[in-house]
Design brief:
The protein is mainly alpha-helical. The chain has two domains: about 55 residues, no CATH class; about 70 residues, no CATH class. Helices cover about 70% and strands about 0% of the residues. The longest helix has 17 residues. The two termini are about 30 Å apart.
Amino acid sequence: MTVKSSRKKAKGPNPRELDVEISFLEGLIKRDPAYVDALQLLGDDYTQRGRFEEGLQVDQKLTELDPMNPLLFYNLACSLSLTGKLDEAMHALESALDLGYRDFKWMARDPDLKALRKNPKYARLREKIRRVKIDVD
């Protein structure tokens, strides 16, 4: 499975197809709660269907299963932002950066992080992003 750098929105399955896929993935997860690839797909599907709390639960589990994966912490930040948990989202995004997340262009326009970017505390994180960019370049 190829994992994108984040949950970039694209024209995907229609709602009915998503519901079928969600049911299938939920069945897989029941049998194997640590099936990371299925959990990632399930979290993406929940988010696409607007089931943000369920997506958040999946993302929290994923970061427990793989605590060194920057993409998982980025997705957790997105889920936390979508559910209005902005301080926690800020912390998760900082963790993603610390672990090596570097898709700054997407981060700046990802609709899932819109509420977080509007938060005044985001200025501190923006400074950290600037410093990381300098180190990368």
